[in-house]
Specification:
Chain B: Belongs to the bacterial solute-binding protein 3 family. The complex is a heterodimer of chains A (360) and B (342). Chain A has 360 residues and is mainly alpha-helical. Chain A has 15 helices and one strand, in the order αααααααααβαααααα. Classes of the chains: A mainly alpha (360), B alpha/beta (342).
Chain lengths: 360, 342
Amino acid sequence: MTNNRTNATAQPSTSPSMVSRGVRIFFGSWLSALLTLLSVAIILALIPAFRWAVLDAQWQAGPPELCHGAGACWSFIHAKLRLILFGLYPPEAQWRAFTVIVLIIALVLATLWPRLWGLRIIGLWAVGLAVMLVLMQGGVFGMSYVPTSKWGGLPITLLLAVLSLGLGFPIAVVLALGRRSKLPVARAVSILMIELVRGLPLVGLLFVAAILLPLFLPPDWTIDKLGRTLAALTIFAAAYLAEVIRGGLQGLSGGQVEAAQALGIPYWKTVWHIVLPQAIQKVIPPLTNTAIVMVKNTSLVLIVGVFDILSAARSAATDPAWPAPSTEAYLFVAAIYFIICTAIGWYSQHLEAGVKARSH
Amino acid sequence: MKTKMKILTALAMPAMLLAGTAQAQSGGTLAAVKERGRMVCGASQGTPGFGAPDDNGYWRGLDVETCRAVAVAVLGDMDAVDFVPLSGQQRIPALQTGEVDMLPRTMTWTLQRDANGINFTTPNYYEYTGFMMPKSLGISEVEGMTGATVCVQTGSTTELVVNDVSTKHDLDLSPVVFDNTSAARQAFFSGRCDALITDAGALASVRASMADNPDDYIIFPATPYADALTPAVRQGDDQWMDIVTWSIQALIAAENFGITQANVDEMLESDDPRIRRFLGTDPGNGAALGLSEDFAYQIVKALGNYGEVFERNVGMDSPLKLERGYNALYSDGGVMFPLAFQ
């Protein structure tokens, strides 16, 4: 602290000291000299990318003919924004898809508020998700019916991520408890289920759900493709979440459960009020990890023909009217994923800070 | 595996509540479509010119309009169609399980597919493949391509053609696979591969629009064969197969009769008995198929004839700029052959 102050006062009077300080910071040792040179090299290497993306880029909205320069063609994103964000969703009903995005963000923000935690927030999410599904599908309250094959873009990505994590979580809790259970059947089933799903790639699961499952079902009923995809994602999320939660359960001392048993508190009440709140607090970082991975995993649904934001962007990029717009399309989608995943990261930091503040 | 299937099934059950159910009929597709009031067609995940959503999410393309023609014939509305985007691996199971009523999705009519659970109707596009190479490599025929790298689009018949050509002439070609046409084309022009294989009808226009200097590139055919891209239907519903076949045929026959979207109303006055039967002025054809008598008139009124559909989606009025080639009428030297509407 004192060091800083002397430096700050010395700065304006003697500039040579600044130079020598700079030399000391950037070239003080072999390691820092190497890192400095490396950084300069990286910055120099990035200049063409910056020129392409910003300086030479075509920012103006307009027809494809504008984009014959050397720079990025952001007019493409402008022209295809609707297709990328909402996919095949009918333009006249687009406000519904937009409302769904707003609702999800609102619910996520509401979840930040500790006073709502517990049953209240679960209820809120359940009502919110029901409203979203009704909004997306329509067919009631004078809204036109939109089949799931037309759902697409960002709402699909968000809904798949939220629903697979939300539906997967209770299953994960049961699996985690089952794996630690003293009942041999419950334990065997949980272990089998977790290991089986974790041993399979998600792509394989999606293929089974999207292609094989309909062939095995009786011919007179088929499950909606989006429903099958969601089921596959949910099972996958559940297996991974189960192992994360089990980690939290193992971190708890057995004394509390035994005390609860001695007091005659029923098993599920013990789990709900004593075990889970503490176990989950312990595993916030790995839970965040799983959440982020699941958000990104939703992009794999493009292989089974679900029009999520990545599929929509790819489809938009195949438009032959535009010269080579794939890079712009992928960068735009990457930016959206980055925003979502960073937001989840911040949220977990906020949660951890809250947990720390309460435990001290 | 069995356990997993059971678990999967059990977990998928609630999903039915989420999104409603579709029913799969083993027969009676016509009745099911009429009751539903909508047709469901399998579509690609974005193949420009054949099936891709435009900026507003409205499906356009040659395959898409083939499906719309059937929707006009059955439901009288070219927009009473839902398109289900399907990946290449998914498309046939989706048809077999009743998820879609018809599959117009750049699918080649092959013996294996025909014998294994689906029925092909009538070709709506003949595809033949060619190679493009830089002249600087000094190669002008397939036999000289030993060891060349080839930019190819995945999941297409062209991928198979590369393999066949390589085996046949013992060329040891190495395919560089891309997941969409434009990516493969870009990669070729940026020098990623020695050769580009794609639909021959497209090669000339690709060269014209994408090459810095079109004269630097040479085009030659990959095989002496052409493939028939054909919309398919489920096996076991002959009436539906007839309806789809003759709805596509209506487009081709209309071009042969010289009937266009613009002159179809005047043609109703025609004295030619074939045209009168075609347009339903003299009844019989519609009743035989279980459709309204003027189904062919309605198709042409809504979409035009095959030539108009072709030019609008893949031909000179589209960015793909394909030549008619094999897809011209038999009378113009192509292989599109109109059957007799009587």
